[in-house]
Design goal:
- There is one protein chain.
- By secondary structure, the protein is mainly α.
- It is built from four helices and no strands.
- It has helices spanning 2-8, 13-28, 31-37, 44-53.
Length: 56
């Protein structure tokens, strides 16, 4: 049921900007950096979503 809530819920505007920035950061990494921390491009949306919800 949580999937449907996430699918249809609109993100907050400030979180959306943070999400885009985090996704851009992940996409800018080269493959060696990705291999060092053990993430794959398929994980980018989940990781960016987690990064955008964290408070600085």
């Amino acid at each position: 049921m949580g999937f449907y809530t996430e699918l249809f819920a609109r993100p907050r505007p400030k979180e959306q900007a943070r999400y885009r920035a985090a996704l851009a950061l992940l996409n800018a990494m080269n493959s060696a950096d990705r291999a060092d921390i053990g993430i794959k491009p398929a994980d980018f949306p989940r990781i960016a979503r987690e990064m955008s919800t964290r408070q600085a």
